[in-house]
Amino acid sequence: MLTLNKARLRALCVDDLDRIAEHGGDLAVTAAAQPDPPFPLVVPAVRGRIERGHAAPLSGGSHDHEFAITFADDPAARLLGIAGLYNIDRFNSIAEIGVTITDPSSRGLGVGIDTYVLLARFAFRGQRLNKVYAQVKGSNTVALATCDRLGIRRHGVLPEHRWIDGAPDDLHIFGLLAREWSDDLIRWRERGPAVERRAA
Questions:
Q1: Are 108 and 150 in contact (CB under 8 A)?
Q2: Of the candidates 24, 27, 25, 23, which has an alpha carbon nearest to the alpha carbon of residue 37?
Q3: Which of 98, 108, 125, 128 has CA atoms 20 to 30 A from the CA of 64?
Q4: What is this structure's pTM?
């Protein structure tokens, strides 16, 4: 498990299926989390991948690695969302970072920003990658602010590159190199101000 001040990343397990099905059936969530047209999650396929120990049970990608997001201090390790490294390219030493907080009551509490930090550390220290990048829709103002706050450089904007809720949306490309990474981000988050958790 990977743990920081607010967030913990652990492997997805069969016990997560009910919450995965609940959130995966929300087309607004799936539309925000993926570039493809939203569609309900096929739970038996996810169960099969989890039982086989697949590194990316939800995406099913052979070059992906997914985690369940939980509160760092939650002994039940209740699923709050999904995070991962996607399209891992070992030859070019790059991967895409993806973070989706699917539990609405868990947003705005610092879980997302800690998850980005944990994924970057896992990519650079654990996977020896040289670069991670994020593709963020223009309408996702929280993710845009998180990338800016962490110092992930904005490489450019693709105008009207996604179709969201019946309208075109811009796609912002962010990137972070291993040499730009600093464990000061870990120390900053560890001593960051406490955030009151909303009542469940």
A1: no
A2: 27
A3: 108
A4: 0.83
Token duo for residue 150: 């962490």
The DSSP bridge partners found for residue 99 are 83
Scored b (16 or more CB within 10 A) or e, 147-170 reads beebebeeeeeeeebbebeeeebe
pLDDT digits (tens, 9 = 90+) for 38-78: 566 778 888 898 888 898 888 888 889 999 999 999 999 99
CA–CA separation, 23 and 40 (whole Å): 9
Q: Cα(67)–Cα(57) distance, rounded to whole angstroms?
A: 9
> Could you report the per-residue pLDDT of 11-23, keeping only the tens digit for each?
999 999 888 887 7
Length of the chain: 200
Say which residue the tokens 């009151």 belong to. 196
Count the Cβ atoms, other than its own, within 10 Å of residue 198.
11
End-to-end CA gap in the chain: 24
State the Cα–Cα distance between residues 92 and 188, nearest whole angstrom.
Answer: 30
What is the chain's alpha carbon radius of gyration, rounded to the nearest angstrom?
16
CATH superfamily of 2-190: Gcn5-related N-acetyltransferase (GNAT) (3.40.630.30)
Where do the structural domains in the chain lie, given as residue ranges? Answer: 2-190
DSSP 30-76: HHHH-SSPP----HHHHHHHHHTT-S-TTT--TT-EEEEEEETT-TT
